[in-house]
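Lab manual, section 2.4: Encoding a predicted structure.

Procedure: take the sequence of the chain (143 residues), apply the prediction step described in section 2.3, and record the output as structure tokens. A sample record is shown.
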Amino acid sequence: MGSSEDSLTQKHDLTISAKNITLEVVDVSENMVKIKSNCAGQVNGTLYSGSYNDTVEAIMMPDGTLPLTIRYIHMTNRGEAIWGKGIGSRGVPDTKAIARLTAEGTMWTSAPRLSQLNGKGWIVEGEYNIKEDSFEVRQQFHS
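Recorded output:
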């Protein structure tokens, strides 16, 4: 992704900070562990700020990576709901227990003020702190 990653780091529309609050082991086998987690935190951005909640389904692969399916809702400080879904991946943690996190997806809202977000695509990149079981990502909207 080269130059698009550089531009995402430079410019973003939202910052999301959240912490894992539940973890369910859904299935296990010799080659994988399937988990489901819920995170809660804050979203801050140019169009709105508020709370963040998600449900993530992931498969822990033998190489340490995790493909992710994400479903989330943002509740703005004005009480508006923005929801979405996406897919992504979490990389292998480094020596400081930090793993790279990337995802992309689509969002919707019933809020008239934010109607330009309906069907809007997004991409995120950031870091997952394994020790603290938390993450911070920067999100950029695209067509």
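Check your result against the sample. The longest helix spans residues 2-10.
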